[in-house]
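fold-stage: in
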Amino acid sequence: MGLSESQQQFVSVLNKNILLSASAGTGKTFTMIQKICSMLSNNIPLKKLLIVTYTDSASSEMRKKLYDEILKRLSECDDPKQKDFLSAQLNDIADSDIGTIHSVCKKIISKYFYVANVDPSFSIISATDKKYLFDIAIAQVFDDYIANNDTQFFTLFEGYNVKRDDSTFKEIIVSLYEYLITMPSDSEFIINTIKNSYNEDIGSNKCANYLLKYYQSKLNKFNSQFASLNMCDFVSNAKYQEYINNRICFIVDCEKINNLVDLINYATNYSFVRRPGCGKNADMDEREFSDELQRTGDDFAKLIKDIKLLSDMDLAKDILIAKENLIKLFEVAQSVKSKYAKLKEKKGLLDFNDLEHLTLTILHSSKADEIKNKYDYIFVDEYQDVNAIQEQIILSLSRENNLNMIGDVKQSIYAFRQSSPEIFIDKFDKYNMGEGGCVIPLNENYRSKSSILYFANNIFGKLINLDTIGIDYNKHAKFVAHDVTKGDVELTIVDKKELDLESQTQKDIEATVVYNKIVDILSSNYIVDGIEKKYELKDICVLCRKKGDLVKAIYSLLVSKGIACNVTFNTNFFETFEINYLISILKCVDNPYDDVAITALAVNEPFNFTMEEIASIRTSKNEPIFNQMLSASSTSDKWMKFINAYNKLVSDFTMNTLYDAFNNFFKTYDLYNYYYSLDNGAIVVQNIKEFLKLTNNSNLMYSVSKMLDYLKYIDKEKYSMTISDPNGVTIQTFHSSKGLEYPAVILAGLGESFNINNHTQDIIFNKEYGVGIKSISGADRVKSDNIVRLACAKSNRISEINEEIRLFYVAVTRAKYALYMTGVADVSKLKNQNIYSCANFIDFIVNAMSSVSVQSLIGGATHLIAFPGDGSLEINVLNNVIEVDSKYCSDQVELLQLDDNDYEVLHKCYDYTYTPTQIPIKNSVTAILKEEVDYENTILYLKNYTLKDGVSTSAPRGAEFGTWYHSVCEKLTYNESRDDVASILSELSDPEHDYNVSEDKVMRQIEAIKPLIGKDGIIHKELNFLLKDNYNNLIKSANTTNKIVVQGVIDLVIEHDEGVYLVDFKTNKNVDAETLIKLYSVQLELYARACELGFGKKILGTYIYSVASDMLIKLI
């Protein structure tokens, strides 16, 4: 392939800083290789070049492509001297400076270790060891502050944490540390943040000025909307005219305000005219106008409410308190940094952040020129993804006019790694003005068919501009098609209103749409170099925004239909029975008085005690079970054998490595053969061996307690399962698809809401305004907001939407011949809107469509051509989804890696059925609600658990109201007045959600429950409990005796001398009393059993309180 004009320009230009702005599929790697080889042809040796890639795999690919190109040029070269030179370069590739920024840093530090004052034999710390040492550092720092009785530390510690759990404050310190280490100078960042963002002079405060401009910009957009409404015929009616003009006058006045305080006061005191109704006799046109006026007016009212909320703040005082808090947080984070550095130094370890900072130290030393002079030219690939400190390293390595920066800001998708696309944009703008270098755009796409590029230009021509991503797409980044032939571009929208979600989940329905499309693709052909080819499974890639339920649903359906897959998703490795059993062994070896752990050892293979046997030796619930086992061993041979076996186990773990001790235990009782005999036995044994590898760590191998600590800190999410078939359909995320391409791409889940959550955190980071925090003040540790955090939040929301735009660009541009998109959405609510009001990717697409096309969809069109022209987007709307028949449908048989003889021998020895991933050692009450339960012979304990005890308090998506309302209930004492209730609702109000709960609703709940409390009732709220029993005792349909621990949380228990009442709050809507009883009777029976045994009192009554219907429903 020859070079295009832009590619040739990049290859030819030397002695000048160049920013190669290379759009997707335009051959940037090919162009880089050509320029490097052109330099070699001009006798610039490879050892004088530094080539920085983003990943190790990219480095390997670069070396291979460079090797192939040099080999090709050698074969075409006739000049003996040039041939010798190229041969020498071919030999130098292995030792050339081609690698990631961290490999470059490591090489520099290894050579100049004495300048950086580090041990020359340093090693790079693993991710798990880093987390382990870092948590130790945090624990030691916290202990120091507590020992010193630091009152300001206690204020923050108690203010940010929930109940007795310290994880929230710890997370704040971790996130603060991780943000600071990406800065070239953390001290400079801290000083600038305090100086600019926490300036108590509101008139000159950077964040206050941003908020002023933010609100003025929002108001101006309403100005155009009201002006448009003002043009309608109905505005001749005085009532409409007065309302619209009232809003327009307010907006015009606000444009003249130059201080945030003045804007807040003006909005608070302005007399807004009430919106008029259209009247009963209005015709259809006037009603439609009135509806549009209402929608606009309601959105406007939300913005005014947002501004007025600031009037409740003492802006200067809040900033002062927040500044004092932040200075303390900075101090704690720096203490953790220092402690963590000492722990690493002691072990001779460095992390990647150390590599960056130490390299910068060396590059600012007297050795800087020596290092710079080593390289004549520097290439930086994926330049859009560098962060602030990496940019400083690159600049410090470069000489004047020798930088080649290659990237595409539209594909900067690593904000979670603190990459900074603003660095690219800054260069882009300066170089375009001729300051310091030049920009060379690559926009001729060699990957995709013209219709795909036409779709991309239509979408991203609207989404990408100077206000969003920072470049003018239509001017600087619009695709030019190299291949002008057409391909398929389709969007399938499943109308959410029409779905039957009783029999199928939304994820399962969309998985069916994806499956149907795959079947359709496999029956069609595509053309490559004039040759028609039939699609195969390996030609198809399904892309989802994130790993999760949709990926699993698609994979499960495809596999059930006999379709092979390539997919990686997070596994429940640490939730499997076998891994929990191994951890229980460690726990009971470390501490025999851990009741759950010692019981788990006793009731499972090889000892197999029943829960009846455990219960029979329990003479006191206050006595540890192990002591009662010891007592029983004096009269029972079986218990004596268990105690002896336990003592030998402890001795083994004391005298041997953990790895050897586990293996000895398994060999003694022939457990490997036992586990192999189970269903999925090969997977069980594989999991066990994987866990044993973790114990074979030089720092942990002799210490049970250290291993248990290590397991607390290990990143459990890194354990993922990969299903690989080279001939299968690929299922992956948008992120993991970057740099790849496929003949046919299906983008799934485009109707799922963006996960924009950063603005809800107690601490928020922003590149412009630094760090925003909720401040803690007063003896009650009251948590308050302030304008710094609000500025960070509003700015971040914009940044997060920009990140979604870039992700969508990456996903769309993976397709070569066909692009298919699917999503579930309420078609009636589709509309053209502001980019930053878009909630999902379908909104992005609709936003680029004409208003006529959008109205056609809303009006019921089931088929539409959205962008008629050289290419087109075909939109299909489905009201129901029917699975198609396919030749790939076949029964699937799962085979373990054992032959027939192995099976016969093992199953004769162990006649047992087991499905490990279906029976976790810990379950929840809600997970067994629909099962038939038997409560005989159970042992229960009440305990006040914190998150440290492993009890999850996270709510599932879609249950936000239920979670929020339960937090209201936690505040109630049931003696509140109406004013008290109003105060609680105000305190817990969520600016992102209007739950519309009145004081009257809560007062009705108080009045309903008060009689149960009476004069002497003691209330217990959010009471946690554990229930331990055989799985088949709880679920009669189960055929296994494995032990599980069921965990639940009881909303309200009212204790009297004669017994207890139990109340559970339910927020289900449109559900009558009979249905609620049917749905939750099993759950409430479990709760009642827990209360009866835990309190040692009878149950006086069990109730459901229906929040939706304000009704107290008695079950027993």
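fold-stage: in (second)
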Amino acid sequence: PVQPNAGQCARYCTDASDFTLRPGSTYTYDYETTTVTTVQGGQEKTQIQITAQADIEVLSKCELSLRLRGVTLKLSDPESPDYLVSLRGAREFAKTIERNILRFSFQNGQVEHVCPSENAPTWVTNIQKGVLSAFQSFSVKPEWTTRTLETDVLGKCTAEYHSLGRNWQGTHTVRKLKDLSSCTERENYETYLQGSAYSQDFQTMSLPVVKGSQECEQVIGDNFLQTSTCNEKLIFRPFSNRGNGVVATVSQKLIYAATSERRFTGNDYRPTTEPLLYTHAKQEVSSAKIEEETEMVLRELCDAAKVDISISVPRKFSGLVYKMKKLSLRSLKSFYQKIDKICPQNTDKARKFFMDAIPLFASDARKFSTASEAHYFLESIDSGIHVDSHLIFSTDSYLPRSAMFNLTVDIFGKSCNLFQIDGRMEGLEHVVESFFGPGGYFPQKNIAKILREKRSVDNNKLNLIDSQFNQHYRNPHQPYGSLDVKVFGTSMWYEQFRSNEDGTPEINLLDIVTKLAEENDKEYSRSFMFLDTTFTVPMTSGLPLKIALNGTASVGLKIGGKFDVKSFEQVDVLGHIEPSGAVEISGLLTVDAGHFASSGMRIISTMHSSSVLDGKVQVRNGEVVKAQLNMPRDRIDVFNIQSKMYLVHGTEEREKAIDKREGTHLQSCTGRGISKVFGVKICSSLDLPPYRPNSPLQPLNGPAAFSLFIEKTDPTLKSYNFDAQWKNEMKKGGFVKHGVFSLNTPESRVDRDVKMELYVNEADHTATLKIKTPVKKFGVNAKLVDGESKKLDFSVNVDDKDYFSLQSELGIVNVKSSMYNVQSSLEVRIPSGRFMAATGTADIRLGQKYSGQLKIEDLTEKPILAKGNFEIGKKDRYDIEASLSSFPLDGTVKGYAQMGDNIASRFNAEYRILEGKMNKLSIVGKMRNLSAAALTKYSGSLNLQASVLPEWNTELVFETMKTTGHIENTVSVSLGDGARSRIHTIKLQEILRYEGSLSDNKVDGSIKLLYPEKNINYGLSVKHENTENSLKNTLEIQYAKNRQISTDVQLKKSTGNLLSVAGDVKLSYPGREAAVQAELAQNSNKEYRGTASCQWQTGRRVAAVLHYKDKCEGSRLKYEIDGNMNLPESSPITFATIVSYHRGQFAGSAEMSQGNDKYRAKADITAGNGLNHRMAGQLMIKNDVYGIDAAVNSIKDKVNGNVEVKMPNRQRATAKFEGRIGNGQF
């Protein structure tokens, strides 16, 4: 049953009274909350702290009010983030909070709703709700765990209450846990992303942007809250790595201080009620101030885009969008009329920025049908992507009728159109043919014919579809076309054309050609915001955590010149093109304390490019090409990308500087050669933060930057002039081709005149190349003779002097089927004479024999002669024989290899180095397959004999075998020849036997390494056996002769109803024997016996026995523990403990003895009704006895008590007291 309360914030009052507060009293608490925003895995951190005294006045059992006083606001010091400092404006912050009192309905520990005053700022009420969220609790019985749906400032969340029991003072401790990812009515989400909402049938929703949890511990005493301590952790999931990333932690403390009779709540009636949920509200700013700020932003934007799209334009444009969003329609019209005054020198661009910002206010989504689609969707994260496109032809035309491409992503429960381009055209066949048809401007290409061949018009299905089209669109004499480009659902560019009213095409080719021939300058610019999302989530403190993501792009293009084309053989092009663009993506994560201060961080990533291409091209008679590339700028920024991090402290944003002592910092430019030849240098720079394991992903791990630019090194460089000519003439039955290419930089003080000439005579197969530079002249001549044998003459001259010449000849004769004879020669000359001459022959019998020789003269003092012979015999036998004669190395090699199931080979070599002593080398190897049935077995050997280093003569023998339950491998290596050096033998053997399954098996294995010459005798053996109820394992390691380390492990457990487990572990090595034994046995349901011993050396042992009995009967509780311990060189120790409790009587005793020394302690406590309690205790240390008797009695309003302490030698101390209880005082 409940009691109705009209005219109060608490509309009713429940009869439940697990939590009771005395009406007419005010309970004061010390309150503190600190929010820390940090990049885990990094060093960046900001803090914001609020402290206050919270007064809770109890107007009635369920009608309470909250007042905060002594409010302080502190932020972390930007120089030392661990220290907190006061903030300018903190006094006004405190006054605003302190003058607003919040009444609330308190129903048995839960804050059902609150009643703020009419003019209370929303942010003040949210902070008060944070205090009340810590104040409210839930009744949990001792030793119980309860799950309940709880409403507080964090949202509607499932809370787990765990009782941690009561202490000796009677206070009850409760732990509360929340997974904030499952909370509802919590976050606020605002986005510009255009899209259509969709529903899903599966239960898993999108992964949250912020993952959070809360853990609180509350202490309840005297039926009201004593302390409440909460810790909340929020992780920003994007760019995090294994939990490292942007993390916000909130600590909140509410500690009871005192109770008083003072009152502060008036008698005002507050009809407005609202739940304890966080209230999301927008900040209101005066219209005049917004207009003033908007003008300033547009003025700065015009200055930034005066020459080109600078790197700061996207950020300033996004600022313009945010300001214009807050203007009314009337203010927008007024603002547009003032643009000429705001940007008098850049009016066109200013109006373009204004118009570009207008579409960004909309949020409608466009939907397009598709002809084909490819998509991928991942239900677990409720996100996906799909691409659709179509290209449709009509049977009346070889040109496509329409085309479309669309890229869409499914994210945040919406389908968002990222990019789309679609177009349509009809009746343009005659336009194409007027350019490329037989009577067109460029008839030699006849492109119309190519298109007709590529696209057949005979298609029955297309005929059927096309018959349904309107006749207006089927008329090929009425041209029509359109093209539309959209980004994020916003039309970025749209163009269309159609026929005139009389049916003639709107396209006039003569007008087009005439306009192209005229010199014109155009400038285009476009700015748009492709990402604008704000995500707000409340925290335990009542402060909001705001995450704002913004993406803005600005592109600009200056283009001018003329395009005069009379034919493909006569072209004049003059013009310039200056593209520039910038993209900025900004992320802001802050904790806001009203409009007074913010704490957090901002991350800005930008991309920028500004280039220029200026020049002219001339083509005459299809052969002469002249071009000029101008260099109007001293520097061209090809590409620049950078990521910066700012720490937000109050109203200040401080950039985190790049530490040149850490991370990667590279700068490089092209060398002096490029600079001298071209007068420019190409440079790049790279700055990356230091790598740390598990650090967050870029851009959270620190500032980074990359840039690529071109910069003049010759200030007088104005342009590059190119001149190219190509002629093709028929002479003496063949074509003679002549080409000339030249490059120079006029007006430059550096001579860069370069000229190249190429002559090619197809009749006599000759070619000549001449190159002239300011430094050198080069010439290249080549002649090719193609007959029965091929000959090549090649020469190079420098400054008209022979520098290098080469003559070569190659002849191949087919003697008969599959038999060839090859002869070749090569001669190289340099100015000092013949550098090298080489001749070679080869005889080839395909698949049987290959032989040949090579002779090289003049390269070394002694001619080089190499011979070789390779034969392929029967039964996979291969024979080889080779020789080499030269000054550095002389020698022969002879050998064979026999392949198959069994392998055998032998190679013998004789050689000498620098005409020294003749040496011998022999390699013999074999391998045999001895496998049969279930046995797999191989054996083999490898023998290496050398006359130079006989001590390294090597013989390797191996054997490997495997069968069911058995694996064995043996390897033996012998070094030395036994005559001039002692033979060293190394042997490695491995044996493994196994049987059974994983739960019931036996394993027996060993590894041995023997090296007698080095006194090495190593071994490892293991035996293992286990069943479901036992385990045995022995391990032995031999590290020298008669020197072993061994271990023995045995575990077992009983299979009966009573528990019985035992374990035995032994370790021994020379000079030490250690062992550990333990056993636990259950004698009955209430009796256990345990034994344990530890030996660390022979004769050095510790043993212990422990006996536990549970003698509880009904409400009588009684527990006994006794045991003994044996220590080396010491008397045994025995001990016993008894604890009992029944109906307010507690008794406990403990005793211990060692030899003649005895120790005893006992206590008896009786808890009566009211304040009637009695306690007696005794402590005996050896022969000294201490005692205490204490009692408290109360009769009506009279209380008396006495305490007596007994000391050894009959000494006593006695104390008594008396008192009265009345009017709530003692």
